[in-house]
Amino acid sequence: MIGAYYKLALLPDDVRATNKIKSKARLDCIAFTDKVAGGYKGLTFFINDKRHKGQLFFYKTPCRDFINTDSKRLAEWSLTGNGLNVSSIYIDDTDFPEIGYGYPNANRLLKDGSQNPLFQYRNDGYLFLINQDYSEIELFVIPDGRNLISSYYQKFIDGGFDDEVNQLRQQAIIFYSYEGLVI
After folding, report:
1. Under a CB-based contact definition with an 8 Å cutoff, are residues 76 and 92 in contact?
2. Residues in a beta bridge with 99
3. How many CB atoms lie within 10 A of CB 155?
4. pLDDT in tens, 69-114
5. Which residues contact 144 (CB under 8 A, 6 or more apart)?
6. pTM value surpassing 0.90
7. For 121-124, which contacts have Cβ atoms below 8 Å and span 24 or more sequence positions?
8. How far is Cα 133 from Cα 60, in angstroms, rounded to an integer?
9. Are 128 and 142 in contact (CB under 8 A)?
10. Could you give the CA distance from residue 30 to residue 145 in angstroms, rounded to a whole number?
């Protein structure tokens, strides 16, 4: 069911300094697992090119800075990268503030008229496990899961993905080797 797993984390101060990373809102992918045949390509737009090391990272951004949405359904945070909103993080069940869901922008074109690099993956669904201060976020991708994301979200809360989540974590490999980071 879950096609890909990404562990995003705020790197420790010394590791950020060693790797010349200044932002404290930047969450770097430190581990991942990919079960999609041929590899999941939905987030490759956000990997900086080999000339710039091949890192995958996003920024934790307050939604009210750029999201216009129904006031009854607001996300407090989103993940952004390369000037794009990757996904808002919705938490509908306040009894479980560590579990959220989201999905990519489904518009063919961005507001500036350019092509949306996420359009091809617009039907994917995202589930998030978040620590209390949002310094660590686990992103679980369900290919073509957007239409049923509310059901997957409830199943996630109910523990229906626990075995699969544990398996993905155990199979995770380092995405990028940051100098000074011990995992």
Report:
1. no
2. 129
3. 14
4. 454 556 899 999 998 999 999 999 999 999 999 999 999 999 999 9
5. 123, 124, 125
6. yes
7. 121/41, 121/42, 122/146, 123/147, 124/42
8. 11
9. no
10. 24
